[in-house]
User: What shape does this take?
Amino acid sequence: MTTDTLATARLLAAKIRRDVLSMLLDEGQGHLGGSLSIADLMGVLYGKELRYDAKNPHWEDRDRVVLSKGHAGPAWYAALAESGFFDRDVLYTLNDGGTMLPSHPDRLKVPGVDMTTGSLGQGTSTAAGMAYALRLKGSSSYVHLIVGDGELNEGQCWEAFQFIAHNRLNNCIVYIDDNKKQLDGYTKDVMNPFDLVEKMRAFGFHAVRVNGQDAAALDAAIQEAKAVQDSAVAIVLDTVKGAGVPFFEQMMGNHSVKFNTPEVIDEAKRAIAALDAVIEGSEA
Amino acid sequence: MFTMASDRSQMGRELRSVVVETLQDLMKTNDRVVALEADLGGASGMTKIAATNPDRFVQCGIAEADMMGIAAGMSAEGFVPFTHTFAPFATRRAFDQVYLSGAYAGNTINIYGSDPGFCVGTNGGTHTSWEDVALMRTIPGAVVCDPADDVQTEWVVRAFAEMGQGIHYFRANRKAVRNVYAPGSTFEMGKGNVVREGDDALVITAGQLLSDALDAAEALEAEGIGCEVVDMFCIKPLDEDLILSAVAGKRCVVTFENHGVIGGLGSAVAEVLAEHGISVPFRRHGVVERFGQVGSPHFLQKEYGLTAEAVCATVRGLLG
Assistant: This one.
């Protein structure tokens, strides 16, 4: 990645954070923490890594994305809007009756969404099937499968990981967003994940841990994953739930945030203004 | 058009072989058909596809929910997946994956749920499904079939391959069942068949019980009771028109199913009768508030009252 594309990825991450905050503030509530923790990954994917055509979202040669932790849909929607899949104004229809942007991604409604997700664990199997199918078709496209750390409580994830590893589907890059928290608290308290890298290795993956809020580190890990031959690949993202906005990083219950107190609303507005300044500075 | 088999006492081909050989045949001309198994390939014969079409057989291991998700993902990439496992695992165990990754997400999954109801035999209560039809009927847009014999099973598999988006479920014994239809018979999805006419009673059934229903109708005729028999092999979408026309003038209606009485064929027919205000002596003849158990299929069929003799008794009871 050149400095320029790295800058593009970082700028996109800032836009995603701004848009997520703006959407959820407009909505009054939403899944903020897990959306912000993958903003940098989305920035790298849509800012540099992915092969896509925003005007032709079903382009056969595109790379696929499956956001199995579907509650982070707002981050994906922001990435898609900022990448030209649909107009940014649509973001503010999130969760409205009849919207094309439901809380959890729907492949029948959202341009750029390759698989419907939301019932945790299920995206892992569908992504596995997509990767298997792409290989059968002789396609060079990748499936980028994004899984939550809390989501790994679901046994289906491990069934799918077995299939991905057994079939050495190295065209399916598995990202685990290890943001350390799930709805009821810290993952180590709710259901201890232990060492995710060791776990993935035990399942037959080439696995690494990287700073998930660092665009350069993410890009390097993706390039390393793509160079792996004959083995499934996983990247464990060391992330912070609510990343990029200190107030929300420190909020304990930041899985779903209600913007219903002056303090929370002010902090969100302040963060949006700060991100706007960063974005304007970058684009100036 | 269908014609009846010349000899109903003869057994047809094993239904699992019908499914496997039909898929192998489809694969010759349709490069999108794939077969997925959950480590029952030896039991279903699906592993034969691995030998003839290695690229088209997907072994998912003992992970039925994962298999349904993989099928959904392959569908999203343009493939036409056929999955197999025992009926309770294909439905009860993997229901949410079929529902969400499959139907809700706009994907296609063709499902062969084998050994439904009393066909389970010595695999016993844990492997028994008295509710698979009920579950699958609730999925928007799903097609649910219970074919009667090898001829109809082959027709269903071929029809599913051409149906496009959605969940398409059929339940069938793995082993051979008695012939009902002559080879070359064709059917229509969503349309039942009047396979025997009669004036007094109407028996609506599906699956291999169609043979028993025909036995019952013959026995009743010997007693002077005219019994019409309808093969409702396609339980969803349901042939409401046929139900309404067949019930006209009958003195009683009995549904006869290898399934629980809640949510299956009997419920589906009852819904039609009730919503059209049809008042007729009516019974859902099936399994009532019981789990499965171990035993030979013959034992289980008798134990759960799913025999020709039992359905005769139900008809006689309704006619007084």
Q: What stands out?
A: The CA atoms of residues 225 and 233 of chain A lie 6 Å apart. The two ends of chain A are 22 Å apart (CA to CA). The longest strand of chain A covers residues 172-178. The domain at 3-283 of chain A is CATH 3.40.50.970 (Rossmann fold).
